[in-house]
Automatic annotation (TrEMBL):
Signal peptide: none annotated. It holds the Pfam family TctA. PANTHER family: TRICARBOXYLIC TRANSPORT PROTEIN. Keywords: Membrane, Transmembrane, Transmembrane helix. The chain crosses the membrane at residues 20-49, 109-132, 144-163, 170-191, 203-221, 318-338, 358-382, 394-420, 432-451, 472-490. It comes from Nocardioides currus. This is Tripartite tricarboxylate transporter TctA. The lineage of its organism: Bacteria, Bacillati, Actinomycetota, Actinomycetes, Propionibacteriales.
Length: 511
């Protein structure tokens, strides 16, 4: 009952004309950027992060809630209409969604994706509201050794489950940790990896890293593979669903939500696994009904389930972010950077230190999710027209706003040089199949892990046993070992190469 009252108080703070306006602007901006080819929610947030500068913390987070859900909606639009997922979690949506679009059912595919996202996002956000305070109250009692172990587990899980190669995942993590070391040592004030540049004494801003890796890297990758031919966009009418579509979609929406939220709430990162499980489940259930032939040819269940799983997982990631301060997705990493800009440090004490802000944020997520459905569903034909923007002009605009955003961080031309450097790094990650999330996670969590490790070692007078002197820490280290060993043993028993094939196709498709 206390949780419900706190959530209602959050609605009271969010339900002002000014805050609703910021939420609506966030939804429209997020959708506008997210609907463009190859741009996912993380890149949309990275590009639009400077837009929130100058707002107070509450207004900025409300706008970010709108941008977040708008970017998620935009990713499903490009997956269905262009077969070009903005992120790997949208691959499963593209499999059946694009087939539906080619059969003249683009409106139904967009409708089931949008409504499923709304249902999953609403249920997921309510679960976040009810679970996060309990986890936060438990996390307050966690000591430095256990906190260090949990962050290590998060890094290992994210690095080992993303991409086709675990080695590439750990390479990305090592790069991110190295970037996180740049600057002055917190204990000795000695310069580390600065190369003698005073501009690097305070470290590298996460906004510069994120915008460079996501926006500049994507623009360079597209330019390198650009084909000068018009984009083939499937025409879209006003999204609607018939009675049969509703009958076939409601159960996949709920099943997808049940798959997605637990994976998002665990510090493992990514929505690829629950979307894949949702797709396989719907396919098997269709086989029992004798309608498996529709899968691969445009089955609406194959859009409804994975899209709900994707959005439920996206909502679930707020549990480790708010309760433990662990960003387990690239999008969560950008949200963490946004919070840090306002002096907000997510973690066990956040729910008690700034309860008004957090409950307003949770209420804003529900408001943004609703506005997304109300505003954007009728505007689907308009968003589809944006896909006709020629790629050279499109990515020239992205480069301009990326540079403007990076410059606004510190108003230094040196940041523009760093932006170009990280853009080259982003291009390299795509060229060699290196996942981006471990890199971003290393940049953000690396300094926090260093602080917790030093606290643990200080308590034990420098003895390394100080990292193992709590039962929870020992248990987490066991999980770390299992996370590395078990996937190696099960690698030969993958159920299907379907997901890997479509992830590879995502890189190969250029319009």
């Amino acid at each position: 009952m206390d949780t419900l009252n706190l959530l209602l108080d959050g609605f009271a703070s969010a339900f002002t004309l000014e805050n609703l306006l910021y939420a609506a602007i966030g939804v429209l901006l997020g959708t506008f950027v997210g609907v463009l080819p190859g741009i996912g929610p993380a890149m949309a947030l990275a590009l639009l992060l400077p837009v929130t500068y100058g707002l107070d913390a509450t207004q900025a987070l409300i706008m970010f809630a709108g941008i977040y859900y708008g970017g998620m909606y935009g990713g499903s639009t490009t997956s269905i209409l262009l077969n070009t997922p903005g992120e790997s979690a949208s691959v499963m949506t593209a499999i059946e969604g694009n087939k539906m679009a080619k059969k003249g059912r683009a409106a139904q595919a967009l409708a089931t994706a949008a409504i499923g996202s709304f249902i999953a996002g609403t249920i997921g956000t309510l679960l976040v509201a009810f679970f996060t305070p309990s986890i936060a109250s438990w996390a307050v009692e966690i000591g430095a050794p256990s906190y260090f172990a949990i962050m290590l587990l998060s890094m290992v899980l994210v690095s080992s489950v993303l991409g086709a190669s675990k080695l590439r995942g750990f390479i990305a993590l090592a790069i991110g940790l190295t970037i996180g070391l740049v600057g002055l040592d917190a204990s000795t004030a000695q310069a580390r990896l600065t190369g003698g540049y005073l501009e690097l004494a305070d470290g590298i801003d996460i906004v510069v890293v994120a915008v460079g890796v996501f926006a500049i890297g994507e623009a360079l990758w597209t330019a390198a593979h650009l084909r000068r031919r018009p984009i083939d966009v499937i025409p879209v009418g006003r999204p609607f669903m018939g009675r049969d579509d509703w009958r076939r979609s409601w159960a996949p929406w709920l099943r997808g939500t049940a798959f997605g939220f637990p994976f998002g709430a665990l510090p493992a990162g990514g929505a690829e696994t629950p979307t894949f499980l949702s797709y396989i489940t719907e396919r098997k259930l269709a086989a029992r009904r004798g309608s498996a032939d529709e899968f691969g040819e445009g089955a609406i269940e194959g859009v409804a389930g994975p899209e709900a799983a994707n959005n439920a997982s996206a909502a679930g990631m707020f549990v480790p972010l708010l309760a433990l301060g662990l960003p387990v997705t690239a999008t969560a990493s950008i949200l963490l950077a946004a919070m840090q800009k306002y002096g907000i440090v997510p973690g066990p004490t956040l729910m008690t230190d700034q309860p008004d802000l957090i409950w307003t944020l949770l209420a804003s997520l529900l408001i943004g999710n609703t506005l997304l459905l109300v505003i954007n569903l009728p505007l689907a034909p308009l968003w589809a027209r944006l896909l006709r923007i020629p790629r050279p002009q499109l990515y020239a605009g992205i480069l301009f706003f990326a540079c403007l955003g990076a410059y606004s961080v510190g108003q230094s031309s040196f940041d523009l040089l760093l932006l170009l450097l990280f853009g080259g790094l982003g291009f390299a990650t795509r060229r060699f199949g290196i996942p981006v999330l471990p890199l971003i996670l290393g940049v953000i969590l690396g300094p926090l892990m260093e602080v917790k490790m030093r606290e643990a070692l200080d308590l034990s007078n420098g003895d390394v046993s100080g990292l193992f002197n709590e039962p929870l820490a020992i248990f987490v280290y066991v999980l770390v070992v299992l996370a590395i060993v078990v996937p190696l043993l099960l690698a030969r028993f993958r159920p299907s190469p379907l997901l890997d094939q479509h992830v590879q196709r995502e890189d190969q498709e250029v319009s």
